[in-house]
């Protein structure tokens, strides 16, 4: 019985030693797995940081590229607007030149019409009959042009006829105005046919 007790105690002690040994074996592998897990976590963090850094760099490059593209498009739009403005300015300049030419043409036509109107009015004035009041004094009757009291003697129609007795033509007597007197010319006859005659003139 004593031996059984000792055997039982030994068995109990043996069981305890076995349990401790198992615990020691299980603990040792557990510590190594934690270190590996920690190392793998650090590596994962580093890899994630590296990936995030690369993504950030790529994003920065993409942003820069987008900014450059936007600037290029803005500059292109500005250049197009400037070209349109230049085209409009050229059109306005051409329109102004056309208006200047039209204005000069209208002025020339107006001057030509004004000159033709002046010529037409001058022609109408030239064709229009002159009123009696506008007749110059040189074209009036000689009697009205003579001084007061002067008379002009005109030859009679019978005196202009040649005498049938005379063979040669007879010169008509000339009438000369004398201030204050009027003399009537007397026709002279041939001395051979009628004899000498005396022309007398009685003063008035």
Automatic annotation (TrEMBL):
Chain segments carrying region Disordered: 1-37, 180-204
Annotated ranges, domain SMARCC C-terminal: 50-127
Top-level taxon of origin: Eukaryota
InterPro entries for the chain: SMARCC_C
Biased composition (Acidic residues): 1-28
Keywords attached to this entry: Coiled coil, Nucleus
Name of a matching Pfam family: SWIRM-assoc_1
Coiled-coil boundaries: 75-105
Stated name of the protein: SMARCC C-terminal domain-containing protein
Higher taxonomy: Eukaryota, Viridiplantae, Chlorophyta, Pyramimonadophyceae, Pyramimonadales
